[in-house]
Amino acid sequence: MRHERFLIAGAAVVLMAVACDNATSITGPDAPTGLRRDALTSHTSDQDVPLVVTEPNPCNGDMVTSDGTAHFVFGSTTDNTGGEHLSTQFSFRGTGMGLPPESLDYTLNEQQSTSEQTPLSATSWLEEWRVIVKPPKPELTYIRHIVFKITINANGMRTAAFERTFTKCGTETTQVDIPL
Fold it and tell me: In the chain, fewer beta carbons within 10 Å around the N or the C end?
């Protein structure tokens, strides 16, 4: 009886080995190559931090120091082909006072965002900054906006680049395009 159990167990092992050799014909075609779907990872963290920011106001030459809160958000994702995608966002809102003799009250709003996409074939980097320095006199409101993007192919060659900057005092806009 003991030999029969051993014989049956041995036959089962042989049968499983044969079935594994023919797995594609039993279960269907092979799955495509690449990372498993569960290999996709993503992480986001955010944090509020008290912060003091000093920003010039070129509309009247004031140097404005503002107390406020900064909010940071960091994100990272690895896709199922091994590419990485990173993003950061920073926003600040504060209030402060300019220099004497006027000592104007200001609100300061600043936002920055950065995005880096690095799939296996290329890299793309995008940054954007927006700053508003706002005193009680609308004609002295200062706005700065910058957008920058660059793309690099798998050989390390720059394939695209773009930068656009403008600043505004009150209703006067100064546009500056910077070739890269």
Answer: N
Beta bridge partners of 172: 169
Contact 98/137 with Cβ under 8 angstroms? no
Q: What is the pTM of this model?
A: 0.66
Q: What is the CA radius of gyration of the chain?
A: 30
